[in-house]
Amino acid sequence: MNVSTKTGFLLMGFSDDHMLQILHAVLFLITYLLAIMGNLLIITIITLDHHLHSPMYYFLKHLSLLDLCFISVTVPQSIANALMNNGFISLGQCILQVFFFIALASAEVAILTVMSYDRYVAICRPLQYETVMDPRACKHAVMAVWIAGGLSGLIHTGVSFSIPLCGQRIIHQFFCDIPQILKLSCSYEFINEIAVAAFTTSSAFVCLISIMFSYIHIFSTVMRIPSADGRTKVFSTCLPHLFVVTFFLSAAGFEFLRPPSDSLSAMDLTISIFYTVIPPTLNPIIYSLRNEAMKAALKKVLLREEFSQRMVCLKAVFKV
């Protein structure tokens, strides 16, 4: 790759071998299409089925929307770079990528926190559930999630790109990664990394403590349920959410809290995939396959007469 980085950056990606880059592009494209279809399906099902118009599924719909946007920030650019054998990304594109990446990641952590609180109220305070989680409160919570994500993105982007950059603008990642950008500072000081990492860590820590508080109370309440079927039903709802939270936060925490290195190993790149690509792809599977209401709604949507008629029309169009 022979490109100028005076007005942008060079993303090193996974390999210098063009054949391996094409393989990476194909794998990323398949994963991206699966994530898009899965999250769009969840959004469609929850929107169409009035039985799923409850706070839990309202938050799940916004999680799917966040996942759909989140994976679209990094993966399409990486696919295009790999196919063209050109890792160049302009300064403007990099700034936008950092902003949307941090904004959506922060919003996702926030919505997962809200979802854990929703489960806490539903299981531990069922008599107050309709009062606490009324439609207005749910809308305000979602608005707060998106606003908090946007503010986080602005702060991180402002801090990261206010530092003068020198030397070769090479980023050892497949997207504009903040720790790698900080490494390019002309007068790289540890305090710059601490300032960004402290804000990220404190915000994530507050969310993590809130989630832990919710689940400690949830599990203590569940263990007092006399019916084994009742306990199983509650666990089937809560455990997927807990898995998503643990997976996402542990992978992201490993990346943002470790010191940036001059080059990334295969394990480092794999870890970055664990919090950028895999969660948006797995979330629809985790939340739909283990949820009886979602599976029933999916069958209902697919068996609707209107849906069948549209599929027939589409087939006729493609035949023409």
From TrEMBL:
Pfam families: 7tm_4. One of its GO terms (cellular component) is plasma membrane. GO terms for molecular function: G protein-coupled receptor activity; olfactory receptor activity. InterPro entries: GPCR_Rhodpsn, GPCR_Rhodpsn_7TM, Olfact_rcpt, Olfactory_GPCR. The chain crosses the membrane at residues 20-46, 58-75, 95-117, 137-155, 194-218, 239-257, 269-289. It is a multi-pass membrane protein. This is Olfactory receptor. Odorant receptor. It is found in: Cell membrane. PROSITE patterns: G_PROTEIN_RECEP_F1_1, G_PROTEIN_RECEP_F1_2. It comes from Cricetulus griseus (Chinese hamster). Keywords: Cell membrane, G-protein coupled receptor, Membrane, Olfaction, Receptor, Sensory transduction, Transducer, Transmembrane, Transmembrane helix. PANTHER family: OLFACTORY RECEPTOR. Residues 38-287 form the G-protein coupled receptors family 1 profile domain. Its main location: membrane. Belongs to the G-protein coupled receptor 1 family.
